């Protein structure tokens, strides 16, 4: 499989041969980010609060983070954005991505070059903390308002979609916090419910697959 793919909405994605998965939906990388993480997660929470702690599972290409920077500026939010990534992509891979051209920004470079394990001011709306670790090894004193649950699919990483794992995520979330994800498999929704989430299914991209917002009860 090729490393780079142009998805149906013109935004690029990468293929991971280690995990046998693309980093985004090949039907549209930007469409997925916008609906699942921005609209259902970030902007829904921004109806309630303007200073938001976001946790992302899987920094990957940085697309979710980049679009969050732009949305924070647009809506005058203050984001403290923590993202976990045990396997950062290389600088050569970053060069392959077309997000800066498509979104008319130079910020993707800053996100990838930001130091790990410390909070870095990207601009006055966006403070980034990249942590080079797995979700399994992550711990936090901070509670998160929004979680972008963007792990590779259950067929590839089943250990990240269990009741135990969702209970761990719930333990670092505010009551009423939103966890959003592209995966709406029954087994995943049941694991979320068992971990104490109230699970909502929402219309997915292209009127087809459903996506999930889970609210911490
Ligand atoms: C679907 S991709 C994420 C795409 C990313 N959000 C983006 O905007 O490009 C999944 C990411 O999770 C990372 N990952 C793999 N195992 C992980 C683990 N145990 N904990 C946290 N992240 C993990 C992968 O390296 C990959 O970057």
TrEMBL record:
<protein>
    <submittedName>
        <fullName>tRNA U34 5-methylaminomethyl-2-thiouridine-forming methyltransferase MnmC</fullName>
    </submittedName>
</protein>
<keyword id="KW-0489">Methyltransferase</keyword>
<dbReference type="GO" id="GO:0032259">
    <property type="term" value="P:methylation"/>
</dbReference>
<dbReference type="GO" id="GO:0016645">
    <property type="term" value="F:oxidoreductase activity, acting on the CH-NH group of donors"/>
</dbReference>
<dbReference type="GO" id="GO:0004808">
    <property type="term" value="F:tRNA (5-methylaminomethyl-2-thiouridylate)(34)-methyltransferase activity"/>
</dbReference>
<dbReference type="InterPro" id="IPR008471">
    <property type="entry name" value="MnmC-like_methylTransf"/>
</dbReference>
<feature type="domain" description="MnmC-like methyltransferase">
    <location>
        <begin position="101"/>
        <end position="216"/>
    </location>
</feature>
<dbReference type="InterPro" id="IPR029063">
    <property type="entry name" value="SAM-dependent_MTases_sf"/>
</dbReference>
<keyword id="KW-0808">Transferase</keyword>
<dbReference type="InterPro" id="IPR047785">
    <property type="entry name" value="tRNA_MNMC2"/>
</dbReference>
<dbReference type="Pfam" id="PF05430">
    <property type="entry name" value="Methyltransf_30"/>
</dbReference>
